[in-house]
Amino acid sequence: MRTFDAIIPYLKKSYAQIAGGIVMLILVDVVQLAMPKVMQYAIDHIQARTIDQRGLVWVGLIIFGLAIAVMVLRYFWRILIIGNSHRIEKGLRQDFYNHLLQLSQNFFNRSKTGDLMAYATNDLNAVRMLFGMGLIAAMDIILMTVASFSFMITINWRLTLLAIIPMPFLTLTIRHFGRMMHKRFAKVQESFATMSGSVQESISGIRIVKAFGQENAELEKMDAVAKDYVDQNMGLAKISGRFHPLMGYIISISMIITLFFGGRASIRGEISIGGFIAFFQYLGMLVWPMIAIGMIVDMYQRGTASLKRLNDIFEQVPEISDAKANPGIIALQGNIELRNLRFRYPHNGHEDGGQSEMPLIFKDITAAIDAGKTLAIVGPTGCGKTTLIELLVRIYDPPQDSIFLDGHELHTIPLQVLRRDMVLVPQDIFLFSDTIANNIRLGNPETSLEAVYESARIAQVFNEIMEFDHQFDTMVGERGITLSGGQKQRVAIARALLTDPRILILDDALSAVDTKTERFILERLIEVRQGKTTIIIAHRISSIQHADKIIVLGDGIIAERGNHQQLLEKGGLYYDLYEKQRIRARLEDEEVEA
C-alpha cells in the first residue's frame, strides 16, 4: 500500500466527485442489467401469445427510456471520474514540479534530465489512466460480474455452473501475465527516460555536434536508444498480444458451452426461449468485465510501476532546508565571516557505493569582509573559488559554525532572505527563451522598463541591445543562443543589479568581456554599490585591483591575503599570476601592432 502514499491526499480531496461518479456508474450498470429482463419478458409473452401490440409499444418505450438513461448517466460518470483523474494528474504534476524546485543541487548532479521528463510525462499519464479508466473498469468488474452471475443463477443454476468452468483458467492467466507486464513496463519507462535524455543532450549540444561533424555519430547513437525503446515496447506488446486473445479464447469457450447446453435445455423445455436469450445476454455482459480485467491488470501494473518511480522522487529530502532557520532574521547587511571552513563534496553514487571519502576541497579557510566592502578571490584553476561561493549561497551546505553572515550562523538565515539579499552571477550563464527585458526582470518582474534600461547601461550592454531590430523585446532563443558570450554575461549582470542585493557575487562573470568594457563595468559597479558588499571571482588580475581585500586560494587554504599593492610586494603566488598576465598582455599588444 505504500505505493499509493503519494496519491492518497489527492483522493481525499476528491472523494465526493469519485463517490458521485461511482454512484452514476452503478446506476448505468443497473439500467443495463434491467434490459435483458425486459427482453425476456417480451419474448416469453410473445411466445405465449399473451401480449398485444400496445404491450409491445410499451416494451419498446421502456427499452428506449433505459437507453436514454444509460446515455445521460454515462455522460455524468465520465465527467466525474475521468474529469477527476485529469485533476489528480494536474495536482500531482504541479506538486512534482514544486518538489523538484525544492531539491538540492546534489540531486540534479546525479539525475538525468531525460529521467525527470519521463516522470513528468509517461509516469503521470499512467497514474491518470489508473485512477480514471482503471477505476471504472474495477467497478464494472465487481458490479457487472456479481450481478450478471446472480441473474444467470436465477434463470438456470446448472447452466451457470457449466458456463463458469473456464473462469479459473482466466484467473491463472491474469496472475501470470500481470507479473510479466509489471516488469516489462518498468523497463519501458527506463528506456523512455534514456531516450528522452539522449534527445535532450543532442539538441542542447547541437552546436558542438555540428562543430565536430558528429551528426552521423549522433544519429547512430539515437538509432540505438530508439531501437532499445522500440524493443522494450515490442516486448510489452507481445505480452499484451498473447494476453488479450487468450482471455477472449477462454470467454469464447464459456459461450460455446452456454450455446450447446443452453440450446439443448431450451429444446427440452427446461428453459424458456426468453430466459435462454436473457441468459446469453448476461453472459455477453460478462465479456466486458472479463476484458476489463485485462485492462485493469495492464493499467494497474503500469500505474503502480509509475507510482513507485514517482514515490522515489517524492521521498527525496532536500539537503538544503530551513530546518534551523531563525524567522527573526528578515534582512542581511553584508558582513561575511569564514571560520575554519573544511569541506568535501557529498557523494553522487560512485561505484564504491559511497564508502570512500571524497577529498577535502578546503582544509582550513578563515577570512572576513565588512559590509559595504569589495572582496576579490583569485587562484589557479580548480582551487575551489566557485565552490567557496556555492557554500556561501548554500547551493551546497557548509559544516555547522563555519560561515557567518552579520554574526548569524549561515543555517539560521531563512533561505528566502538569503536568496533575496545575496545574488550570484555564475560562470555558466543561463538565459530563458524570452525577451531581453524579461530576462533582466527575472528577479523583479514588476520593475519598470526605465529601471531595466539603467541596469543595462551599468552592465555596458544597453547600446548593443538598442541596435537589435526589436531592442529590449528581442527574443534571445534557448539559453540565450542568439547573443554572444559577452552579451549574455552582461545581461546576467544587469539582471543581478536590478534586484539591488546587499551582497553581489560575480563568479568570473566578466571572462567573455574585453578588458576595456570590463573596466567600465567595474567602475560603474563601484559607483552604484556604495555601502553594499561585492565579491568578485576572476582570473584576470586587472578585474580585481580595486578590491578592498584580495584572498588567494591554493591547496585548500588561503595562501595569501591583502590588497593589490600588498600582495605584489610579497612576491608570492599573486605576484606570479600578475606578472604572467602582464607579459601575456604585452605580447598580445605587440602582435596587434605587428
What would you note in describing this structure?
This protein has helices at residues 8-13, 15-47, 53-102, 105-109, 113-130, 133-155, 157-163, 167-204, 206-211, 215-267, 273-314, 385-392, 415-421, 436-440, 449-458, 462-466, 485-498, 515-528, 564-570, 573-593; strands spanning 336-344, 360-369, 374-378, 403-405, 408-409, 422-425, 503-507, 533-537, 549-554, 557-562. α5 (113-130) runs antiparallel to α8 (167-204), α6 (133-155) crosses α7 and α8 (167-204) runs antiparallel to α10. Residues 349-355 have low confidence and may be disordered. Strands 6-7-8-3-9-10 form a 6-stranded mixed beta sheet, sandwiched between helices. The chain is elongated and about 120 Å long. Among the domains are: 84-314, ABC transporter type 1, transmembrane domain (ABC transporter transmembrane region fold, Up-down Bundle), CATH 1.20.1560; 336-348 and 358-427 and 501-593, P-loop containing nucleotide triphosphate hydrolases (Rossmann fold). The longest helix is centred in the middle third of the chain and has 53 residues, at 215-267. By secondary structure, the chain is an alpha/beta fold. The protein has 20 helices and 10 strands.
Q: How many helix segments?
A: 20
- The H/E string reads HHHHHHHHHHHEEEHEEHEHHHHEHEEEHH
Mean pLDDT: 81
Structural class, by secondary structure, is alpha/beta
| CATH structural fold name of the domain at 84-314 | ABC transporter transmembrane region fold
Strand content: 5-15%
What's the CATH H-level superfamily name of the domain at 84-314? ABC transporter type 1, transmembrane domain
The CATH level-2 architecture of the domain at 84-314 is identified as Up-down Bundle
Helix content range of the residues, please? 55-70%
**What is the general shape?**
elongated
Neighbour order of strands in the largest sheet: 6-7-8-3-9-10
- Number of DSSP E strands: 10
The CATH class designation of the domain at 84-314 is: Mainly Alpha
Major β-sheet profile: 6 strands, mixed
Stretches where pLDDT falls below 50 for ≥5 residues? Answer: 349-355
Q: Alpha-carbon distance between the termini?
A: 77 Å
Radius of gyration: 36 Å
